[in-house]
Amino acid sequence: MASAAEQLAANMNFGAFAKATELHKRIWFTLIALVVYRIGTYIPIPGINPDVFQETFRQQTQGILGMVNMFSGGAVERMAIFALNVMPYISASIIVQLMGSVYPPWEKLRKEGGEAGRKQLNQYTRYLTVALALFQSAGIAFSLQAQPGVVDVPGPVFIVSTIVALTGGTMFLMWLGEQITARGVGNGVSLIIFAGIVAALPISVWNLLQQAQVGAISAIVPFALALMAVVVVGAIVFMERSQRRLLVQYPKRQVGNRMTGGESSFLPLKINTAGVIPPIFASSLLLLPATAAGFMKPETMPAWAQWLPEVTRQLQHGQPLFMVVYGALIIFFCFFYTSIVFNPEDTAENLRKYGGFLPGIRPGKRTAEYLDYVLSRLTVIGAGYITAVCLVPELLVGFSGAPNAARALGGTSILIVVSVTMDTVAQIQSHLLAHQYEGLIKKSKLRGGRR
């Protein structure tokens, strides 16, 4: 027999959506915030010659700049104030989560600090975001100044103004993402990245069709990319909704004159527990060599840093080294992030505390070992699936001759878009479900008052 929640979910329709006024406000707030973000991607930083920079960008679009431009929705191509996007914030979040697992004071805040500890860690994340944004914006400023003709008036004023503009843009997007999460629908940072990818998609498709029309690429390439995108979307939806459900039993116990318990439930373990974090953080780590190289001019580069330009060249899309390092980083962060978000020992302790147990598995240590055993094997499948999805565009870069379209229609972009869409839709359904519960409670109170 279906539960009350399942019955309510089955009865949700457009009528229920029309009555959820609070949900309407959240959706409108989210849309307006994303429009503000898109406007910011068209505001250029001061002191840039746009024509010269456009030519310079076209020459380097197959490298690191093209990848960052995809996530920022074209902000890098226009060298806008949002060119860094939320990548420093994502990197800072992962670093703080890593330190929360290995640094005892932060680990204590994460486990025992409760809401106050979470707020303190969030504050550390903001401080680290500022530091990373300053570092990356300084690298961009020095790199731009090193390009002949790109900067109208080179000098300290341009360096400082560029650092302030790019760092301020990142901090504003971090604040905007937090506001979307609190007052809108969905995860704000994920929606900002989602909006950037979706905004760049029509232009990439149009450029791909034009290249096929003039014979720059084979006419089969657009159809192959479209077919690949459909297959990848289906695979992502299937894998993201897949889970291993472990049966949890609760023994019967007598409370007063009543016998309670004896029920069973399921502990769902997702195949991809890490979500879209591994490819995003792997991409941001691959930006570090290019950022470091931006601080130094080739002719004045010290001997110990002579390897940076060659490494940066090898870490471009379609290069074998990039694919190997990218795949290895994705696999590493799949296991690492899964170990952070799901602790088998804590889960086993919570089950034991509330009297639950897995049939055939002793509570406590043996349950934790079994959960770790199952989760490790699920993560192997999830890491293989994410790696395969993300490396598909890299192969297309090498064989299709259309790197920008292959990147925009590739696995990483589709993975982020599909995952964020599914998460946002799930949150909308949760708000509708809560609204229906509130309606039922009000009706029951009215009936009770009439009696």
Describe the structure.
The protein is mainly alpha-helical and 451 residues long. The chain has one domain: Preprotein translocase SecY subunit. It is built from 19 helices and four strands. A two-stranded antiparallel sheet has the order 1-4. A hairpin with a 2-residue loop joins strand 2 and strand 3. Helix 8 packs across helix 13. The two termini are 30 Å apart.
Task: Name some characteristics of this structure.
two-stranded antiparallel sheet, Preprotein translocase SecY subunit, globular, 451 residues, mainly alpha, 4 strands, two-stranded antiparallel ribbon, 19 helices, disordered N terminus
Question: Could you give a quick summary of the protein structure above?
Answer:
The chain is mostly helical.
The CATH homology group name:
SecY subunit domain
CATH class: Mainly Alpha
Identify the overall geometry: globular
Structural class by secondary-structure content: mainly alpha
Query: Could you say what the CATH architecture is?
Result: Orthogonal Bundle
Q: Report the strand count.
A: 4
Q: Specify the number of helices.
A: 19
